[in-house]
Design goal:
It is a single chain. The chain has seven helices and no strands. It is mainly α. It has two domains: 1-63; 70-152, lambda repressor-like DNA-binding domains (434 Repressor (Amino-terminal Domain), Orthogonal Bundle), CATH 1.10.260.40. The protein starts with a helix and ends in a 27-residue tail after the last helix.
Amino acid sequence: MGKVESTIKAEIMRLAKREVRSTFFPLRREVYSLRLKLSGLIKNFVTLDRLAKETLQEQAKKKMELQASPEEVKISRLTPQRIRLLRNKLGISQRDLGILLDVSIGAVGMWEKGKFAPSTKKKAALIALRKLGKRDAKKLLAEKKQAMSKEKTGKGIKRRPARKKAAMTKRGKARPKARRKK
């Protein structure tokens, strides 16, 4: 009886292993193919994520324009004192504010004195500046200065050499050049 029992157990084990193999191997192949697909998707995701970050950075650089909504521009009151306080809060000079807003130093000075009021475009830019902190304003200013320096070097401005100044007499008139005798 012991031999029959062990033979039946061996046969049951053999059939059970065969059954397990027949269901396990197709699943194993499927798992392998899914892993391959997953690794491919991960590679694609990493590439797309990197590209998305790069485009966001480029857009952030391009988007650093100072804009405010028309409602904000209409509601806000920019007095000369508020313009000066804004400039002082940001810790920038009149020249730097002029660079940020693409206006001259004189225009900023006139705004702060109350002689002139900023145009609606410049007013919108000033309102947008109010939303920025010191760091953001300094960063934007540095980018604008860098862009300006690139423009200047890109144009290739050539200057003429300076002329020699004529020797002046005590009265402020130019002395005639001495002629050489031949």
